[in-house]
Amino acid sequence: MQREIPIDQAKIDLYGKINGDNDIIHYDHEYCLKRGFRGTLVHGPHLSAFVCDLAMKKYGKDWFYRGKLHTKWVGPVCPGDKLIVELKDDGSVVERVKDEVTVIGRAVLEDR
Amino acid sequence: MTRPDQLKPREDSVPGTPYDAFVVGAALPELRFTITPAIVEEYFDSVEADRSLYKLDGRLAAPPNVLFPYMTVPLYRKYPPIQGIVMAEVEFRWRNPIWADETTDMVVTGKVADKFEKRGRRYVRWEAEWKRADGTPIASMVNTFHVPS
């Protein structure tokens, strides 16, 4: 299953408001260009959160008690990007912008 | 206090922590905070979560990932952040729900687990246990981030 999420700076700012950070890597376009990125960066945990609706659909209530989410942020996601978030049948997670993979990981249930 | 921005030092608000200052094995001070229904509502909106998915036996729960905005608080209170930190990876294991319609008192403990260099970049790895104040386990977490030189 997958979902598509268009990214803009307003979404980064909204997450930043509850996250409470002031890291210019999320807000200062010029700084990010100097760091070699295409633009400001979506917060990593914000990207991880996009998987969780899919995990809820896949696992239901077990996700609250046995869910294990591992995400590795391997590429930038910036304003203007159209993010594709995919949770595969085997629990593997891939997020990508066009052909560039930005997040990899797994969302699975643990035995208890 | 409830909001992450009330709990964590913001970049540039205090001198940040360079890589060399992180001490592997160092325990982080116990953190206590509350998650209110208002925070849960704000979080639903901030991550575009579908509330209809989070009903548990008819009662609305918070997305387990509502802990994400608090994720760095236990660490940053001991090691305030420098500018330009980039997150590398995180693992959360959830154990019990946080309800959306009540205030939850939380207690977090943790420690710096490792620091290492890889492909010319410096990383810090730390871990934390998230529990309700009554001891009910909520989540275990391991997080790794890149500290710019």
Supply database-style keywords:
heterodimer, A: 112 residues, alpha+beta, Thiol Ester Dehydrase, Chain A, five-stranded antiparallel sheet, B: 149 residues, mainly beta, 3 helices
User: At CATH's second level, what is the architecture of chain A?
Assistant: Roll
Please give the count of helices of chain B: 3
Which bin fits the share of residues in helices of chain A?
25-40%
Largest beta-sheet characterization of chain B: 5 strands, antiparallel
What is the strand arrangement across the widest sheet of chain A?
1-3-4-5-2
Span of the ends, CA to CA of chain A: 26 Å
Q: What is the global morphology of chain A?
A: elongated
Q: Give the H and E element order of chain A.
A: EHHHHEEEE
The CATH level-2 architecture of chain B is identified as Roll
Mean pLDDT of chain B: 93
As a whole number of angstroms, the C-alpha radius of gyration of chain B is 16 Å
Question: Using DSSP, what is the number of strands of chain A?
Answer: 5
CATH class of chain A: Alpha Beta
Q: Cα-atom Rg of chain A, whole angstroms?
A: 15 Å
Computed structural class of chain A: alpha+beta
